[in-house]
Write a structure and sequence with these properties.
single chain, 705 residues, five-stranded mixed beta sheet, four-stranded antiparallel beta sheet, 26 helices
């Protein structure tokens, strides 16, 4: 069968990586499933992403092998999916894969009926059998045999799995049009105690290996630590240990910043080297919030500020596109002499350090940064990481040699960049850049956040249709409409940008996104993650709209939407949107103590809701005092604090087009600026000094239990 090379015209970097395979790949869509029905064969669905190391491995071992490709083409319709472009596809078939095989990950290998129902699945399959794992060819032959000889049982199992997935959706169904449950503050303290049971107190973080950055959970812990409670100190200590452990480890690039996707070891010493925008955007924000909280004896605010600054600089330098958007990722692998080597650009040996630094500095750096004769990743060496605080003399040495090492590393072959722009991840980046810029006194980061926001508005947002497109390539929006997470994360970022700048345009755009999300993802009072872009996905989940309440690498769409609804209600005074946020938070009680590591953003949003949230309106003419008042609010750790700043606009009549929180707010009678602080729309007398603002905020922050 001739390979038509249907992926050659794709825009996805991941699909283009496979365009020259002898496998006759189809992109995900009706054509592939119609052909499977006509040929009466299953669909083989392969899901991965451009930066995925094991995706490259399986591609080289199996998808580039002519004999394997011939068998696959003859007995299946092969479909290739970029999980980052189609998270709706990835989510439903990941759930199916975990139910069938007990494991999940990428590359994901799923076998489907022509209707899209999953009946067999796994992840990476090797070219030859390994203990506990069959070869890919064994799997293909077994599935083909089952399809030909036991079709009725195969299809019955597929229908049963879809029905089970539909039933599971009932347990996470959210109605937005009823009275919400009253949040129990004790639930949050209970969640902290449950998190403590799975903490690694030595290396920081949760669980053993592999260990992922717990970004959403850290946001909850930081917010919880900022409110008086019986578990506030426990939350602060856990957050500090995790942030310190990651910042000093190989997970964090010690030369130019940026965090890897995860560590294969519990002590963060051997990272899986792909660097993702969504990780770095969230971690930038979390480290900035730790600075805002004031740090602790384990991890100081000063060290956190340096980590955040380097993360932001790396994100803009390495993922920033000339068009203004931010690219998705850097690959885990570096190609050297035509061969993929995981992390090759980042690895050092004692010999390579000696060649660059000379004997004295090389020996000291090797000892300080854990570079030994035996490479921890491969024969190419180990990543630089101290794994502990540096002494004053070590810090001086490191500041001196770091530019030299970075300059040499930059001459090596570099990992490939996936240049697609994902709307939601760029929304997370806007929030991180805007808030870090305010906390770190770096207006350049706030300006960068505005550049990203302008790109999203110009390229991804169709104002006439009220539609946000998920992905763009080369400054052109392509593919499916955004999912709930895209609308939520973009609105979240725009609210953060509005708080930092006082520019009403960002508030208005966030408001439009929220209204569009309501129209797109709420039907008959129920909330869903997607708007049904694919009949096959709908079939696979039992023909029921799906809502996944669990955080993954990024917060769940439901949790993100609850957060922006809460913020919007504080700005607008909308009781309806506050109720909607409360209804989504109704997902939390069964998760808070059963699976808090997967509900971090719901917990963080609940912490903000219990705090009020507190609303701050800065009114009066622009002046150095107004800037001080505004800055003090932006640097406050008060959970869920919402900040509105009057935009200087003498041409507009008072109140016209103004953010509702600022309507009828004026400067003091003497013309100086002042701050109105409110909780649940009940306001205190306006105050005009930083000390008064800080004192009143402290009084308005309620205990969490």
């Amino acid at each position: 069968m001739e390979n038509v090379n249907r992926l050659a015209s794709a825009y996805s970097s991941y699909l283009l990586q496979h365009k020259d395979n002898p496998v006759d790949w189809f992109p995900f869509g009706d054509e592939a499933f119609a052909l499977a029905a006509a040929r009466d064969v299953p669909v083989f669905l392969s899901i991965g992403y451009a930066a995925c190391h094991w995706c490259h491995v399986m591609a080289h071992e199996s998808f580039e092998d002519q004999e394997t490709a011939d068998y696959l083409n003859a007995h299946f319709v092969p479909v290739k999916v970029d999980r980052e472009e189609r998270p709706d596809v990835d989510s439903v078939y990941m759930t199916a894969t975990q139910a069938i095989s007990g494991e999940g990950g990428w590359p994901m290998s799923v076998f489907l009926t022509p209707e899209g129902l999953a009946f067999h699945a796994g992840t990476y399959f090797p070219p030859v059998p390994l203990p506990g794992r069959p070869s890919f060819r064994n799997v293909l032959e077994a599935v083909h045999e089952a399809w030909m000889e036991r079709r009725e049982a195969v299809e019955q199992n597929a229908r049963g799995l879809a029905a089970n997935m539909a039933n599971a959706q009932l347990s996470s169904a959210v109605r937005l049009d009823g009275p919400p449950e009253v949040l129990d503050a004790q639930l949050l303290s209970d969640a902290v105690r449950v998190l403590a049971r799975s903490e690694d107190p030595d290396a920081g973080g949760f669980g053993s290996s592999p260990k992922f950055p717990p970004s959403a959970v850290l946001e909850f812990l930081i917010r919880h630590a900022a409110a008086p409670s019986e578990t506030a100190k426990d939350a602060r200590d856990m957050a500090g240990r995790a942030l310190a452990g990651m910042a000093r480890s190989a997970l964090c690039d010690q030369l130019d910043g940026g965090f890897a996707r995860y560590s294969v070891t519990a002590d963060w010493s051997v990272p899986h080297f792909e660097k993702m925008l969504y990780d770095n955007a969230q971690l930038l924000r979390v480290y900035a919030h730790w600075v805002r909280l004031g740090g602790n004896e384990v991890f100081s605010a000063e060290e956190a500020a340096e980590t955040a600054s380097r993360c932001a600089d790396w994100m803009l330098a390495s993922l920033g596109l000339p068009s203004g958007g931010l690219a998705s990722s850097l690959d885990a692998d570096t190609v050297v002499d035509g061969v993929h080597h995981e992390g090759a650009a980042y690895l050092w040996t004692p010999g390579s350090l000696l060649e660059v630094l000379g004997p004295d500095d090389a020996e000291a750096v090797a000892r300080m940064m854990n570079i030994g004769d035996q490479g921890t990743v491969s024969e190419l060496g180990s990543p630089l990481h101290p794994g502990r605080p540096l002494s004053a003399s070590e810090s001086t040495l490191w500041r001196r040699v770091r530019p030299t090492l970075l300059a040499v590393r930059d001459l090596r072959n570099q990992p490939a960049r996936d240049e697609k722009v994902v709307a939601g991840w760029n929304g997370l980046a806007i929030a991180g850049l805007a808030e870090a810029g305010a906390v770190l006194d770096r207006p350049d980061l706030v300006a960068a956040a505005q550049d990203v926001a302008e790109y999203l508005e110009d390229v991804h947002w169709d104002a006439e249709q009220g539609l946000l497109i998920r992905v763009s390539h080369d400054s052109k929006a392509r593919g499916i409409g955004g999912l709930l997470e895209d609308y939520a994360f973009c609105a979240e970022g725009l609210f953060s940008l509005y708080a930092a700048t006082g520019k009403r345009r960002w508030y208005r755009l966030a408001e439009q996104l929220i209204r569009a999300a309501e129209a797109r993802f709420v039907e008959n009072g129920h909330l869903a993650d997607s708007a049904g872009e694919s009949a096959q996905v709908f079939n696979a989940q039992g023909q029921r709209a799906a809502l996944d309440p669990f955080d993954n690498a990024a917060p769940s769409g439901a949790a993100g939407f609850a957060g922006v609804l809460l913020t919007y209600s504080a700005y607008s005074g909308s009781h309806d949107h506050r109720l909607m946020a409360g209804n989504i938070l109704g997902l939390l009680p069964p998760l808070a103590t059963r699976a808090p590591r997967a509900a971090g953003w719901l917990l963080a949003t609940a912490q903000a809701a219990l705090a009020g949230p507190v609303e701050a309106a800065v009114a009066g003419p622009d002046s150095s005092l107004r800037q001080e008042l505004h800055g003090a609010l932006l640097k406050s750790a008060s959970p869920g604090l919402v900040v509105a700043l009057q935009e200087d606009d003498a041409a507009s009549p008072a109140g016209e087009g103004e953010v509702p929180l600022l309507i009828h707010r004026t400067g003091a009678p003497n013309g100086s600026p002042q701050v109105y602080l409110c909780r649940d729309m009940v306001c205190e007398r306006p105050v005009g000094t930083v000390a008064e603002v800080q004192s009143m905020l402290a009084r308005m922050t309620p205990g969490a239990s």
